[in-house]
Design brief:
Elements (H helix, E strand, L loop, with lengths): L2 H13 L2 H8 L3 H15 L4 E4 L2 E4 L1 H24 L7 E7 L4 H15 L3 E7 L13 E6 L7 E8 L1 E5 L1 H7 L12 E4 L5 E5 L2 E5 L2 E5 L3 H9 L4 E5 H10 L3 E3 L8 E7 L7 H16 L18
Parallel strand pairs: 3-4, 3-5, 8-11, 8-12
Antiparallel strand pairs: 1-2, 5-14, 6-14, 7-12, 7-13, 9-10
Helix pairs in contact: 1-2, 1-3, 1-4, 2-3, 5-9
């Protein structure tokens, strides 16, 4: 059985249809359909039930999918093992945040493409939460505080931030001095997240409230400048605003604990060489460029950066 046909079946099973798998693989739908036909012909069973909404796995397909995925992963590992030292091939699918991806991470991907001319890199930029397994991604870069999940994460660097508000907001609503006072203020948030602050060696957690929410840090910064409320934002976003006086750091006696930038990947025993190389390049890039997250990035809470 052709390994490419096998990998195509896994892609269709995970994507939920031929069209989605074709986009993911970068080939035409007719090619995907031919590969599926060969796999089913070889096995003598129907693996997928075609529907108007896509394709659903049959009982045989559900059983075969896990074996096929493991076999494909083993072949990928074997190929990487025998490649010349340092050479990468195939396709690397990465998800990156829209807020930081084009400015902070894209240069590393460009350098990776230069160093490995046989490697195809496909990047998706979005601030939405991406399901790596469902969308067939090799890894994602996430910024902030990681939520509990079954994904495997590797920290590539620290991110420091602070609470900020505009002079107009402070004049109209005052400036909170302690975390407890935040509950009566308008918070600018991504969703329903909790905010954490350092009180000496202790971490204090607050559940802020607010009517303005956005999944993009730049949008939250613009809302803060407009006087809509208080925002917790990374220093690389607020530095220019703070320097100009458009935003003012507040509650500085209780700094947020340092967050981080991470490479996350689906669970498995070992990362692929492509993901491992990207992770190493990102760690080196941020170590070599300590001001990449913004000039105002002093660690005020004593946390180690790595």
């Amino acid at each position: 059985m052709d390994i490419e046909d096998l990998q195509t079946f896994v892609a269709v099973a995970d994507a939920g249809g031929v069209s989605a798998a074709a986009r993911r693989l970068g080939v035409s739908k007719s090619i995907v359909s031919r590969r599926l036909f060969r796999v089913e012909a070889e096995l003598g069973v129907q693996l997928l039930a075609r529907t108007t909404r896509g394709a659903a796995l049959t009982e045989a397909g559900i059983t075969f999918r896990d074996h096929a995925a493991r076999a494909s992963a083993e072949i990928d590992t074997a190929r990487e093992t025998i490649l010349p030292t340092g050479e990468l091939r195939g396709r690397l699918r990465v998800a990156m945040p829209l807020t930081f991806g084009p400015t902070h991470f894209a240069p590393v991907l460009a350098e990776m493409a230069h160093q490995h001319p046989q490697l195809h890199i496909h990047t998706s930029y979005s601030d939405r939460f991406v399901d790596l397994i469902a969308e067939g991604l090799d890894c994602a870069i996430r910024v902030g505080y990681l939520h509990d999940s079954n994904l495997i994460a590797k920290r590539i660097g620290p991110i420091y931030g602070k609470l900020v508000a505009s002079p107009d907001y402070i004049k109209a609503s005052g400036s909170p001095q302690t975390p407890d006072e935040l509950v009566v203020h308008q918070a600018l948030m991504q969703g329903t997240e909790a905010w954490q602050f350092m009180d000496g060696d202790k971490i204090v957690t607050v559940q802020p409230q607010g009517r303005f929410k956005a999944d993009n840090a730049a949008a939250l910064a613009a809302a803060a400048v407009a006087g809509l409320g208080i925002a917790w934002l990374p220093d690389c976003i607020t530095y220019g605003y703070v320097t100009s006086g458009a935003l003012i750091p507040i509650m500085t006696r209780y700094p947020p604990p340092s967050a981080g930038a991470y490479v996350v990947r689906p669970p498995g025993k070992h990362p692929t060489r492509k993901v491992r190389v990207l992770t190493e390049m990102l760690i080196e890039y941020f170590a070599r460029n300590p001001d990449v997250w913004g000039l105002d990035r002093q660690n005020t809470n004593g946390a180690k950066p790595y």
